[in-house]
Write a structure and sequence with these properties.
Elements lengths: L7 E4 L6 E2 L1 H13 L8 H5 L6 H11 L6 H17 L6 E2 L3 H10 L3 E5 L4 H11 L7 E3 L11 H11 L6 E5 L2 H10 L3 E4 L15 E3 L5 H8 L2
Parallel strand pairs: 1-4, 1-6, 4-5, 6-7, 7-8
Antiparallel strand pairs: 2-3
Helix pairs in contact: 1-4, 3-4, 7-8
Function: Specifically catalyzes the dephosphorylation of 2-phosphoglycolate. Is involved in the dissimilation of the intracellular 2-phosphoglycolate formed during the DNA repair of 3'-phosphoglycolate ends, a major class of DNA lesions induced by oxidative stress.
Cofactor: Mg(2+)
Catalytic activity: 2-phosphoglycolate + H2O = glycolate + phosphate
Length: 225
């Protein structure tokens, strides 16, 4: 890849690099079953995730008109993480074109970092199991930094840990958390239309909205001029 001003590319994980919704749904439904609540569909979970598991759980219980106490939410979160960590790559798959683009970027010396509201250890475990962890200079999870997305500190930490330069960085994501964090950090952001968001992708306010991962290299060239 040439003719791009971006030497550092940050990627969201869930809904951007990997379709994790099937395994996230399994973990969420495990928690809901403990409270005799009906399971969520995979599509409903795709519209719920983005700000981390804890908020996903809160929103899911709110869907049934229920509010968990802090202690109950702590327990539900622990149950979710335990189930998810045991089944983290059971049904999750890379979105089409991801491995090809990552290989292209790596071979052209572009620094890459994962900037996700999934915890760092779970992110690393997933990326290792699915076979793409070696492409990234850093994996910056929600617990890697004091302030996660949409706070700009998450963006700055991911760039610094990758050895990148803010002015030459861009975020590829799928949700409002991605757009808000990129805007706060002062870097461009691309949203993938296939991702996880309750708000239509074209209404998130990204610099570009793309249909396929394979379109990213050309998009970076276009945004460089």
């Amino acid at each position: 890849m040439t003719d791009s001003r971006f030497s550092c590319v940050l990627f969201d994980l869930d809904g951007t690099l990997v379709d994790t919704a099937p395994d996230l749904t399994g973990a969420l439904n495990h928690v809901l079953s403990q409270h005799n609540l009906a399971p969520f569909s995979v599509q409903k979970v795709r519209n719920t995730v983005g700000f981390g598991a804890r908020i996903t759980i809160e929103r899911s219980f709110a869907h049934y008109g229920k509010t968990l106490s802090e202690d109950a939410l702590d327990l539900a979160h622990a149950q979710f993480l335990a189930h998810y960590s045991e089944n983290i790559c059971k049904n999750s798959t890379l979105f089409p074109g991801v491995d090809t683009v990552l290989e292209d970027f790596k071979s052209n010396g572009i620094r890459m970092s994962v900037c996700t509201n999934k915890t760092e250890n779970l992110s690393l475990d997933l990326l290792e199991q699915i076979g793409v962890s070696h492409y990234f200079s850093s994996i910056c999870g929600s617990d890697t930094v004091p302030n996660k997305k949409p706070h700009p500190d998450h963006i700055f930490s991911a760039i610094n840990r990758a050895g990148g330069i803010t002015e030459e960085s861009i975020l590829i994501g799928d949700s409002m958390a991605d757009v808000e964090s990129a805007r706060a950090a002062g870097i461009p952001v691309i949203v993938m239309r296939y991702g996880y968001t309750a708000i239509p992708s074209d209404e998130l306010g990204a610099d570009l909205v793309l249909d396929a991962f394979s379109q990213i290299p050309q998009a970076l060239r276009d945004l460089s001029h």
